[in-house]
Amino acid sequence: MWQELGIAFCLMLVLEGILPFLYPRRWRGALTQLLQLPDRQLRLMGLASMLLGTTLLYLLH
User: PANTHER family annotated for this entry (predicted)?
Assistant: First the structure.
């Protein structure tokens, strides 16, 4: 199980690095916009992301 978690973490880092590598200016602009969002909206986006990821993981497994 620890090996799978390590692989998942490494894959997450690769995927997270794609946009800043390919489009650094656009990524910086998107990050600036995210910094201006209220906490409630960021929490809702985080919740939606977690639920979508959990659902997709369940469907694929």
Answer: INNER MEMBRANE PROTEIN, INNER MEMBRANE PROTEIN-RELATED
